[in-house]
Amino acid sequence: MIICIGAGPGDIGYLTQRGAELIRDADVVAGFEAVLDVVRSLIPETARVISMGYRDQVEQLDKVAVEHHAGKKCVVVFMGDIHFSGFQYLERVERACGHPVESLPGISSAQILASRAKVCFDETTFITFHRRGDLEPFKRHLVHVLQDQRNAIVIPCPWDAARSFMPWHIAKYLIEQGIPPNQPTEVWENLTRGEAEWHGTLAECAEREVSDMSIMLIRTMAPMASQIEPAPVVA
User: Fold this and answer.
1) How far is CA 143 from CA 66, 112, 121, in A?
2) Are the CB atoms for 209 and 188 separated by under 8 Å?
3) Alpha helices by DSSP H, the chain
4) Greatest alpha-carbon span in the chain
5) pLDDT, tens digit only, all 235 positions of the chain
6) Is 159 left (phi over 0), alpha (psi -120 to 50) or beta?
């Protein structure tokens, strides 16, 4: 058995009960070191822990696949929710195993941000730049989202300087593409650990550097009006 689990946005309190049960019952628990640290207290002493980083993930996932095919109960832990920003990692797990694998959803930082910032996902588009490959189609998509007067929740790309696309890079890019410099913008850091929130404009964001543990909200300039019934008139 092998299953991929979303472990939440960095706080074990956001891990689902089913996810916790699967980790406690696992023979093998694998994932990036930062994610394993979140669930470390749940991993059985008898379990084999397979830690990996960006450079050795293919090699380490091959080790997980060997254990899986030997009949061990294997869990691969993802940060947040798999289908928000971990889909390429899921593809690597399936490539290593040679077949589709089961996944268990988690809570993404995007969901936490939507709750904290009071935005609704049916009026908001989520875009992640936390991916390998060409970012240009996703950059253009973000421009179109804002032109369509929708909110945008954005996960930056924090990797090496050659391709990083952090909030200040995103703000500069959007202004260059004609998005108004006064577009309301928020950057939230460490959402589940003494969160820091910053509110301002795209122009101000372009001059502000933040940590890798950040997520961005760009609010529409024309919020949708409420469509519930009018409040009762008080005489």
Assistant:
1) 44, 23, 18
2) no
3) 17-24, 33-39, 57-69, 82-85, 87-97, 109-117, 136-147, 167-176, 202-205
4) 74
5) 999 999 988 889 999 999 999 999 999 999 999 999 999 999 999 999 999 998 899 999 999 999 999 999 999 999 999 988 888 999 999 999 999 999 999 999 999 999 999 999 999 999 999 888 899 999 999 999 999 999 999 999 987 777 899 999 999 999 999 999 999 999 998 777 666 789 999 999 999 999 888 999 999 998 888 888 888 887 7
6) beta
